[in-house]
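User: For my dataset I need records formatted as: sequence, then structure tokens, nothing else. Please produce one.
Assistant:
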Amino acid sequence: MSVLIIVTSALGAYHMYAMERAIARGIYADILDDMQDIGYLEPSLADYYLEKMGDLGWDVSVDVFAGSWPRVENERARKERQESVTLALTVTPSRVAQWMHRFAEGEVSFSFAGSRPSEYFDPRW
């Protein structure tokens, strides 16, 4: 009976880990798509996703977008200059997901990073 409880608990923990990682990956993909369209990480967009991640119980007290560029409008990446946007996202998930991620990947936080060419075209060009 105890073996059945342990196996069921392990399966539940793995499913929770997989779900949280998929949500984090989805958030990363959404932000990168938005950055590609507008040419930078808009502060209101960052705040929206920080609130969303905080609602999931993730630790967002540090700069989860450290390494992302550009982050201000006057540095906006432009398509006509063939510039790219870069997003780096590092979030600390729930305790169960942290434990499972440490077991699977050897680290506690979910980290995603990538670049894409900007699709923002300056209308004054």
